[in-house]
Amino acid sequence: MDKLLTSESIQKSLEILIPLGIFLIILLAGYVLRTYLFSRLSRWAAKTGSRMGDTIISAARSPFLLLCLMLGVYAAIEVSKLPKGLVERANKGMSILAIIAVAMVAANILCGFTRIRAEKIESALPVTSLTEHIIRIVVYGVAALIILNSLGISIAPILATLGVGGLAVALALKDTLSNFFAGFHIIVNRQIRVGDYLKLESGEEGYVNDISWRTTKIRTLAGNFVLIPNAKLTEMIVMNYTLQDKDMAVLVGLGVHYDSDLAKVERVTCETATEVMREVPGGVPDFTPFIRYKAFGTSSIDFNAILRGKEFVNQYLIKHEFIKRIHERFAREGIVIPYPIRALNFDQEKRG
């Protein structure tokens, strides 16, 4: 009798331990395979310089353990002696998880592919948080419909319910939806892009860091971030310094004494500005600087030196170096930058 009880207990233990062991072995094998295989594939992609290959590898890395987990559970259920109804429910659950894993991989690959294409083609839709969210919403929405269909749930009543309830949701989320569609309009219109330097009518200025479903993030030169609702941004007067070309003219105002040789002043100034263009980071080396005299000032003949920077932020270093060098060069050449002078005629005042 004791032997019979012992054999029954051993058999019950084996019924639990064998499926558990199979599950753990498959999960461990999946972890080892993920570590070894994906590291080798990543090195291969780095050697070949294939960005698309690297995108696919990165997209498949995260859901791989989930797929191994599902495979382990499926194998464990198959060798176990669970009731048939429970096995069928577990298999349905595995199918749902498989659809979710495939949707994750597809969404990651599509986002990566869109990002690569946008970098290669200037006219392509720029990739921001909003565009990636739209891609993921579409992919996961299709996955949700497939899951509902696999569960035998009719989609038509759900779509009808969404159509009726959509109006109430739209009214409740009016501001959120307004910002969402305004952000989509900004991206499609391409008058404001990630990386552009903007100056807003409210006074803030900086580089566009991201356009999300609600706000546009602008990074100022001080390193701070300004968050502007998309709907408000579309109503603002915005100066975009990089809409057509990133490079821009850099004007530096100067003045020289009335006794100066203006031809010499022009030659010396242009030579110094040309050196700055070639040697200072951010200057445009193939640009030929020039000057334009503009007025007879109260104490000097005023003019502007016109240089060029590759983008908005470069103008500060260019002006800094140009002012230092032109001050030194004028001193060597004997060109005088006069102090402000005012002549007072007391005799005229005495005569009334």
Key attributes of the depicted protein:
3 domains; SH3 type barrels; Alpha-Beta Plaits; 62% helix; three-stranded antiparallel β-sheet; alpha+beta; 8 strands; 352 residues; five-stranded antiparallel β-sheet
The total of helices stands at 10
**SSE pattern, N- to C-terminal:** HHHHHHEEEEHEEHEEHH
Rg, alpha carbons: 35 Å
Instruction: Report the major sheet.
Output: 5 strands, antiparallel
Helix coverage percent of residues?
A: 55-70%
Distance between the termini: 139 Å
Q: Give me the secondary-structure category.
A: alpha+beta
Shape: elongated
Strand order of the largest sheet: 4-3-2-1-5
> Care to count the β-strands?
8
| Uncertain segments | 1-5
Q: Please indicate the count of domains.
A: 3
The mean pLDDT is 77
What fraction of the residues are assigned to beta strands by DSSP? 5-15%
Structure in words:
By secondary structure, the protein is of the alpha+beta class. It folds into three domains: 13-152; 154-244, SH3 type barrels; 248-333, 2-Layer Sandwich (Alpha-Beta Plaits), CATH 3.30.70. It has helices at 2-48, 51-79, 84-120, 129-150, 155-172, 174-189, 230-235, 262-279, 314-333, 346-350, and strands at residues 197-200, 205-211, 215-219, 225-229, 238-240, 248-256, 290-296, 301-309. The strands form two sheets. Strands 4-3-2-1-5 form a five-stranded antiparallel sheet. Strands 6-8-7 form a three-stranded antiparallel sheet, with helices on one face. A hairpin with a 5-residue loop joins strand 3 (215-219) and strand 4. Helix 1 (2-48) packs antiparallel against helix 2 (51-79). The relative contact order is 0.06. The model is unreliable at 1-5 (pLDDT under 50).
